[in-house]
Amino acid sequence: MHAWMASIFGDDTAKNQGRVTLNPLKHLDFVGTLLIFIAGIGWAKPVPINSTYFSTRRIQSIIVSLVGPLSNFVLAFVGFSVWYFTPVSISVEEFLNIFVSLNVVLGVFNLLPLPPLDGYRIVSSLFSAKIQMKLRPLEMYGSILFLIVILTPIGDFTIIPFIRTSIDVVMNSFYLFYEWILPI
Q1: What are the tens digits of pLDDT across the range 30-78?
Q2: Domain count of the chain?
Q3: Which residue range or ranges hold the Peptidase M50 domain (predicted)?
Q4: CB 50 within 8 A of CB 12
């Protein structure tokens, strides 16, 4: 979604690098993939974006960063809607539960304002170019800090409660939406 939106705004960097594809091999990051097997958490290569192609760099950078988490919430809502309106078997219901939960977690998680996540890109885009330049050298430490928080008990008191609460808020919003448009 990031590459698609960036392309709409005039940046074909990802397309030119062959990254606009559903082929998962094009998106694998060696360390991120390795950590999936070691620690149960990993990541893909970041989508290459060159905001110098954007006509309104700050606003379009924020939009490009938002479409990733937004697409997760849309997918979660679609999965929830299928579950809500369609009688499904237990195995399909279990799949939809995992599908919805995973997309909500990814959407919320990616909105955290830590580098290299989308939330950081959104927040940093709000700063002046001068401040952004000062933040850039610190970004490489963001991944290390992020891993420390996630892989140690620190996450149990910081990020994990936030994500759990956010999942509840999003899921309750889905229920409330349908109760609002389809009152019984």
Answers
A1: 988 998 888 787 888 989 999 999 999 999 999 999 999 999 999 999 9
A2: 2
A3: 90-135
A4: no
pTM value is 0.86
Are 71 and 103 in contact by the 8 Å Cβ rule? The answer is no
What count of other Cβ atoms lies within 10 Å of the Cβ of residue 71? 17
Residues 80 and 140 grouped into a single domain: yes
Tokens of 40: 């149960």
Q: pLDDT at residue 143 above 80?
A: no
In a shared domain, residues 152 and 75: yes
Q: How many other C-beta atoms lie within 10 A of the C-beta of residue 120?
A: 20
163, 105 in Cβ contact below 8 A? yes
- Among residues 118, 117, 84, 78, the alpha carbon closest in space to that of 99 is found at 78
